[in-house]
């Protein structure tokens, strides 16, 4: 009896099925596409992975393989050997796209396969999300809306790991809260994201699942042109402060220079206003200098003209007192 049971398990493909983990049942709207993740054991890293279509394990047909060079309009497959997950994407799902297997080729043995069901519906799927790809930043939060039709407890599960079944919990050190946002909508919030938070998750309602891929990256740092100009101005001013300190033999500490620089960090609009004021002051100073220069030149010419007239008068006076005829200069 035991021998017969073992033979039956091998024949039906249940033996070794724990080496592959995937979703069990996903509801999809007809005409749309869906991506299914298949988590495999590390011993299968270098093995060929493929998608098999059909209800029976041994008679299913291979639709696409990771070692195939052919291009399919309906199916695509990719293998992430670091995460040990291969994904299959099925486009334009129909009622005929119901039974599939995540499969790994195992030369010399029976290929390892894991069954999943893909029922298509003309209306609203039993469980759905806004999108299957979500990106977040380290230390930040992300929200995922899980839409459902049936009553029951909504769970948030990580593929091959644990699930959060209550209103709050954690997965891989990342906080998870589940709240009802409205009729038929549960919002999952993942807070304090870490690198380990990346991976495939699922909204789970009874026996229906909807896979969601979460990617956690470093928060980008951007520098705008206004910020660049501000930093350049601040650097120039800090150098001026240090130079002036050296000339006056009055050392300025690094903390004082930092305080001065920080004190001048203002918004771009403030810098534009300050620039306008400075240009106005420079213009007024230039005009004042120009007027002063003209006035000084005019005064200098007037003094020179007066000195010349006085000298000419003295010449005439001296000559008259000597009894000689008066001769004007220039005659």
Protein architecture, described:
This protein has 3 domains: 15-121, Immunoglobulins (Immunoglobulin-like, Sandwich); 127-217, Sandwich (Immunoglobulin-like); 225-301, no CATH class. Helices cover 30% and strands 32% of the residues. The chain is built from 4 helices and 20 strands. A hairpin with a 7-residue loop joins β8 and β9 (112-117). α2 crosses α3 (254-263). The longest helix has 54 residues, at 268-321. Mean pLDDT is 79; it is low at 1-16, 234-266 and 310-331.
What's the layout of helices and strands?
Elements: H1 2-12, E1 20-22, E2 28-29, E3 34-40, E4 49-53, E5 61-65, E6 75-80, E7 85-90, E8 99-104, E9 112-117, E10 120-121, E11 127-129, E12 133-137, E13 142-148, E14 154-158, E15 163-164, E16 168-171, E17 174-182, E18 185-191, E19 199-205, E20 208-217, H2 225-247, H3 254-263, H4 268-321
Helix pairs in contact: 2-3
Condensed summary:
The N and C termini lie far apart (152 Å). The chain contains four helices and 20 strands. α2 (225-247) crosses α3.
Residues in β-strands, percent: 25-35%
One letter per element, helices H and strands E, the order comes to: HEEEEEEEEEEEEEEEEEEEEHHH
pLDDT averaged residue by residue: 79
Please identify the oligomeric state. single chain
Which runs of at least 5 residues are low in confidence (pLDDT < 50)?
Answer: 1-16, 234-266, 310-331
| CATH T-level fold name of the largest domain | Immunoglobulin-like
Tell me about the biggest sheet? 5 strands, antiparallel
Count of alpha/pi helices: 4
Would you report the number of β strands? 20
CATH class of the largest domain equals Mainly Beta
Shape: elongated
CATH architectural label of the largest domain: Sandwich
Structural class: alpha+beta
Largest beta sheet: strand ordering: 11-13-18-17-16
Proportion in helices? 25-40%
| CATH homologous superfamily placement of the largest domain | Immunoglobulins
């Amino acid at each position: 009896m035991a021998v017969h049971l073992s033979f039956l398990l091998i024949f039906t493909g249940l033996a070794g099925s724990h080496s592959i983990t995937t979703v069990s049942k996903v509801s999809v709207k007809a005409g749309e596409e869906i991506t299914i993740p298949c988590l495999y054991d590390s011993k299968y890293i270098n093995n060929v992975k493929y998608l098999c279509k059909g209800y029976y394990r041994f008679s299913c047909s291979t639709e696409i393989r990771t070692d195939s060079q052919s291009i399919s309009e309906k199916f695509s497959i990719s293998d992430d050997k670091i995460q040990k997950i291969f994904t299959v994407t099925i486009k334009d799902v129909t009622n005929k796209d119901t039974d599939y297997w995540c499969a790994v080729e195992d030369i010399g043995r029976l290929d390892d396969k894991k069954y999943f069901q893909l029922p298509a519906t003309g209306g609203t799927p039993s469980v759905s999300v806004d999108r299957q790809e979500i990106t977040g930043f380290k230390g930040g939060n992300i929200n995922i809306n899980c839409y459902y039709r049936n009553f029951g407890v909504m769970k948030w599960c990580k593929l091959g790991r644990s699930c959060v079944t209550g209103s709050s919990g954690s997965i891989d050190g990342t906080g998870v809260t589940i709240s009802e946002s409205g009729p038929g909508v549960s919002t999952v919030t993942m807070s304090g994201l870490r690198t380990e938070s990346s991976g495939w998750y699922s909204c789970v309602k009874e026996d229906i699942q909807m896979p969601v891929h979460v990617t956690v990256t470093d928060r980008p740092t951007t520098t705008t042109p206004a910020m660049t100009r501000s930093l350049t101005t601040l650097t120039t001013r800090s150098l001026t402060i240090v130079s002036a300190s050296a000339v006056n033999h009055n050392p300025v500490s690094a903390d004082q220079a930092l305080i001065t620089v920080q004190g001048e960090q203002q918004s771009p609009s403030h810098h534009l206003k300050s620039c306008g004021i400075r240009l106005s002051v420079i213009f007024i100073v230039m005009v004042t200098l120009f007027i002063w220069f003209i006035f000084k030149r005019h005064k200098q010419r007037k003094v020179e003209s007066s000195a010349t007239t006085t000298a000419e008068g003295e010449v005439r006076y001296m000559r008259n007192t000597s009894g000689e005829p008066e001769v004007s200069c220039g005659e």
